[in-house]
Specification:
The complex is a heterodimer of chains A (about 400) and B (about 550).
Chain A lengths: L6 H16 L3 H5 L12 H12 L14 H10 L4 H27 L7 H9 L2 H8 L4 H17 L2 H14 L7 H9 L19 H23 L4 H11 L10 H6 L6 H13 L2 H7 L4 H15 L6 H9 L13 H25 L4 H28 L9 E5 L1
Helix pairs in contact in A: 1-5, 1-6, 3-4, 4-11, 5-6, 5-7, 5-8, 7-17, 8-9, 8-10, 9-10, 9-11, 10-16, 15-16, 16-17, 16-19, 18-19
Chain B lengths: L1 H11 L11 E11 L5 E12 L23 H9 L2 E10 L4 H4 L10 E9 L14 H16 L11 E2 L20 E8 L6 H9 L15 H4 L4 E11 L3 E12 L11 E2 H5 L12 E7 L6 E4 L4 E3 L2 E5 L10 E4 L16 E7 L5 E10 L5 E9 L3 E12 L2 E2 L4 E7 L8 E9 L3 E11 L15 E3 L3 E4 L1 H10 L5 H9 L4 E4 L3 E3 L9 H24 L2 E5 L3
Helix pairs in contact in B: 2-4, 8-9
The chains are: A mainly alpha (about 400), B alpha+beta (about 550).
């Protein structure tokens, strides 16, 4: 009996089951979890900001609310803020994200329907990193959804919607500016897999400048809208500035928090600069190397964001891992998928455990959790380097007997 | 012969001359009040009035100030007040927890644990030029803290911006604020440090501010061995301006002593028992010098010597009428009976707790009991350092388990800034008659940089106590319901139209600590990992693939 992965069956079933779970008491148990929601995405902080905003106190005057003013506008005018409605909206976000991922897959294959569609949707909707993050009502599902929508429209060649989604994403998370370059390359070329047949960037770069200008215009309009909503520019240092200066050292699954907890005061600005620029230095090499397949460049940069972002949540590595489903052609060339999987398993089990032992039980100290985040970073790094290797190695193909492929 | 002539010159001096120096009056008072639980509260008050003086206008800070010549007024303090143009200043250094439920409302209302400093200062000259930057309120507030820290040998200097707040309603000026022409509004600054310890090194500079030091008069009773052994003790400095009188400096010392622990075998007390000293002689420069004793109303007692006058159940002993050495003694005829129920003399009973075992979040629970038959309006003031932040959206008010959001009339909130500013929450509540209102707010706990933790970080941080202030309109209803022993304090409060403030004890919060021993290790581990991933990625991206013949 062949297991049916028909999208029309799998998709509604998965969304409905997730909705059921979201309506239980699980969100209340998970909303304090530091791995699933960072200070920039926490639902508690969002509620606090909305409460302050509704009561006429500028939420950006303090240091708790660090969400974009667009969230304020969304939740104080259009959407109500009850927990049940929130659970539905958050699940819908994931549903839209999964649908966008399927569309990306279809655009890459240049077909309107494949037998793999259900599997792709499942890879996103069943990914525990994304799933638990949504249950904790962290706002990172919004970021993931916007990322996938921006990539989807870029893959379909719709420049304006893609750039608008990217501008919205920039407002939600400053680090995602990294994705702008591959998105524009993707708009200028095609999403079809060229990994096995690399060639120079075929299209001329003339239409890149208008695209950048359009993105800048969207970002500027959204910034003005944010200023109008929040009544001042105070949101800039509170939202974007937080990604650069790291004022809140709440533990998360990333590398920044403990490093800057333990950093000597006089070196703090220097290392903040180093860590911020470190995120940017990957853009050019990755985009140049994968110029023939910008969708793959986007994927690699997502992996870099997931590993090195200032305030990551589990949803960020989750997006990277789920997106791996779109590139089945590289699977044979992965060198150590088992090791990567085991590292992820190891970190995913130890992180919540050590976090609980440190902060709730009081029987462990910060080093335990820090060590598990290092393992998690190793897992993400292993997945990343393996994907870089496989994406390049596929071009050589299988050598004949008696020959091996190495890097010089 | 020369000695005789000298005495003759002395005799020429009118006896009153030395008491009324040109424009300065010094008076002292000791109030002793037996408490319902058998302990004895005593309050020393030393008041110096500088007649006709006005606070310095900060607009004129760049102009040379007139010279300061004082006879009784403490010069060290006067210099600070003029230098930083402070209009009104209050400093309290208290140790221990004032037990309102057993001791009633204190004579000196400000009994916050640790050091508290609050002041009103007008804005300096408006231009923001660099020369005038130190005339700004915040710069002068910083300098004032440093100066007072030096004067009182206390850690007031550490009441920095992270602890400074400006609550609007719970504190009102005791005196008046001068209306200078073209002057901007007065600014209020408040800061408190609950972990400050109060001891002899603070009392010595305190005594130095008195004209008679501790040599004569009531100040002679300030014996550090006994005062710092008391169940509760605290000192205060209050500077205010009275428009028709001048600048008044009030130095107070309040303590709660246990006569049993002091060596007696009953609740009978005497000055020698409480302070291990007696009044040897009066302070010659004091315009008035009195001891006021609250006398029992329902029981038989004997007091020696007889008071000069008895008003309202309070016997006054004027030191000018008494013979020296003076040792007041109060004896009860009946043995002490412990009350079976705590006699709630305070207008309100407030409890405050930090709940939750997790080190990253919890809840603040406050219950305020109004025993009175009338509803009262209060301001609940919470000033929290940024290490604990409130989730105001989770604020819940309930009476007996029933949610009552209508009791919250207004709220004013200044959000905390990490590594920068403390939070200020002022909630205006109306408390129904004979009920307990419970306030429940979710809190989060910040994670601190390793350099921001205090020494002995695992002990945690002391959070300043909350303040519940009865609004003046409501305190008028209050005095009728309270016991006569407290009447004096109440009337004093009403006279100055001060909100009655009730302080809760400090709370201890333990933020999660990093490992203090391994900053190098963390920097090395994280940097190595990042360099490894960076290297691997760039290695893959830059090296070309080649096909080689297999060696075997």
């Amino acid at each position: 009996m062949k297991l049916s992965l028909d999208l029309s069956v799998v998709f509604p079933a998965l969304v409905a089951s997730r909705l059921l779970l979201a309506l239980t008491n699980l969100p209340d148990a998970l909303k304090h979890d530091h791995q699933l929601s960072s200070p920039l995405t926490s639902y508690l902080n969002l509620q606090e900001g909305i409460y302050l905003f509704k009561n006429g106190i500028d939420p950006y005057s303090g240091g708790i609310f660090r969400h974009s003013p667009l969230f304020l506008a969304l939740f104080t005018t259009i959407l109500p803020t009850s927990r049940t409605v929130a659970s539905v909206i958050w699940t819908l976000c994931d549903a839209v994200g999964a649908w966008a991922l399927v569309q990306i897959w279809r655009a890459r294959q240049r077909v309107s329907q494949t037998s793999r569609d259900g599997l792709i949707a499942g890879a996103y909707l069943l990914n525990p990193y994304i799933f638990l993050s949504t249950l904790s009502l962290s706002t990172s599902p919004f970021e993931n959804m916007l990322t996938l929508i921006a990539v989807m429209f870029a893959a379909q060649g719709n420049a304006s919607p893609s750039l608008l989604a990217a501008a919205l994403l920039l407002h939600l998370s400053l680090s995602s500016v990294v994705l702008l370059a591959p998105l524009i390359l993707l708009l200028a070329s095609s999403p079809v897999s060229q990994l096995a047949s690399p060639r120079a960037f075929a299209k001329n770069g003339k239409n890149v400048a208008p695209l950048v200008a359009e993105f800048a215009a969207y970002a500027a309009i959204l910034s003005l809208a944010s200023t109008l909503v929040s009544g001042g520019w105070a949101w800039v240092p509170q939202t974007w500035g937080a990604s650069l200066t790291l004022p809140d050292l709440t533990p998360n699954c990333g590398l920044w928090w403990y490093f800057f907890t333990e950093m000597f005061d006089h070196f703090r600005p220097f290392f903040l600069m180093v860590f911020s620029i470190h995120l940017l230095i990957y853009i050019a090499p990755v985009c140049i190397k994968f110029q023939y397949d910008p969708l793959y460049a986007t994927f690699i940069l997502l992996g870099i964001l997931a590993t090195f972002k200032p305030y990551p949540t589990m949803a960020d590595p989750g997006l990277f891992l789920s997106m791996l489903a779109v590139f089945p052609e590289i699977y044979p060339y992965l060198r150590y998928p088992i090791v990567t999987t085991l590292l992820h398993l190891h970190a995913a089990l130890l992180m919540p455990l050590f976090h609980h032992l440190w902060l709730n039980q009081g029987t462990a100290n910060a080093n335990f959790f820090y060590a598990s985040t290092l393992v998690f970073a190793c897992a993400n790094g292993a997945a990343l380097t393996d994907c870089v290797w496989a994406g390049l190695r596929i071009a050589i193909g299988e050598p004949q007997d008696g020959y091996v492929v190495v890097q010089e | 012969m020369r000695t005789l002539r000298f005495l003759w010159v002395l005799g020429l001096l009118p006896p009153c001359y030395c008491r009324y120096f040109s424009g300065e009056t010094f008076s002292e008072e000791l109030v002793i009040r037996p408490l319902p639980d058998g302990k004895v509260a005593s309050r020393f008050e030393f008041t110096t009035l500088l007649h006709g003086a006005t606070p310095r206008n900060p607009q004129n800070l760049s102009v040379e100030d007139h010279s300061q010549h004082y006879t009784l007024f403490p010069l060290a303090l006067g210099q600070i007040l003029r230098e930083y143009a402070v209009t009104e200043l209050h400093l309290t250094l208290n140790a221990g927890k004032w037990n309102y439920d057993r001791w009633g409302y204190p004579e000196e209302s400000d009994v916050a644990t640790g050091a508290s400093l609050w002041a009103w200062m007008a804005e300096g000259s408006g231009s923001a030029s660099a020369a005038n930057a130190r005339h700004r309120v915040d710069a002068r507030w910083r300098d004032l803290r440093n100066a007072l820290a030096g004067l009182f040998c206390a850690s007031i200097a550490s009441l920095d911006e992270q602890r400074t707040t400006s609550p609007g309603r719970a504190f009102t000026p005791v005196g008046a604020l001068p209306a200078w022409p073209a002057s901007v509004q007065h600014a209020f600054r408040h800061a408190s440090l609950p972990s400050e310890n109060v001891c002899t090194e603070n009392l010595t500079p305190f005594l130095k501010l008195l004209p008679c030091k501790s040599l004569s008069g009531l100040a002679h009773l300030l014996n550090p061995h006994r005062l710092f052994d008391a169940d509760w003790h605290g000192m205060g400095l209050h500077v205010s301006w009275r428009p028709n009188e001048g600048v008044q400096v009030r130095l107070t010392f309040q303590s709660v002593s246990d006569p049993l622990r002091a060596g007696g075998n009953s609740r009978d007390w005497s000055l020698r028992l409480l302070f291990d000293r007696v009044v040897d002689r009066a302070c010659p420069v004091a315009a008035s010098s009195r001891i006021i004793v609250t006398l029992p109303t329902k029981e038989l007692y004997s007091v020696h010597p007889e008071p000069s006058s008895v008003v309202d159940g309070r016997g006054a002993f004027d030191l000018s009428d008494q013979s020296f050495p003076l040792d007041l003694r109060l004896r009860w005829a009946e043995p002490f009976q412990h009350a079976t129920v705590p006699s709630a003399e305070a207008p309100l009973s407030v409890r405050r707790m930090l709940r939750g075992s997790a080190q990253d979040h919890g809840a603040l629970a406050i219950s305020i009991t109004n025993p009175d038959s009338d509803p009262v309006s209060v301001v609940y003031l919470e000033t929290l350092p940024w290490i604990v932040y409130l989730y105001l959206s989770t604020l819940e008010l309930s009476v007996g388990g029933v949610r009552r959001p209508d009791l919250l009339q207004d709220i004013s909130y200044i959000a905390p800034v990490p590594h920068g500013r403390a939070a200020t929450l002022e909630a205006f509540l109306s408390l129904p008659a004979r009920s307990t209102v419970t306030l429940h707010i979710g809190v989060g706990r910040s994670f601190l940089r390793y350099t921001e933790h205090p020494p002995d970080a695992q002990r945690g941080w002391d959070l300043p106590g909350a303040v519940v202030a009865l609004l003046p309109a409501a305190s008028g209803n209050q005095s009728s319901a309270t016991d006569s022993t407290n009447k004096g304090a109440m009337q004093e409060m009403k006279k100055w139209n001060q909100p009655q403030r009730i302080y809760t004890p400090a709370l201890l919060v333990d933020p999660a600590t990093p490992d203090f021993s391994m900053p190098y290790n963390v920097i090395i581990f994280t940097c190595s990992l990042i360099a490894f991933i960076f290297g691997s990625v760039f290695n893959g991206l830059t090296r070309r693939f080649v096909v080689l013949k297999s060696p075997e």
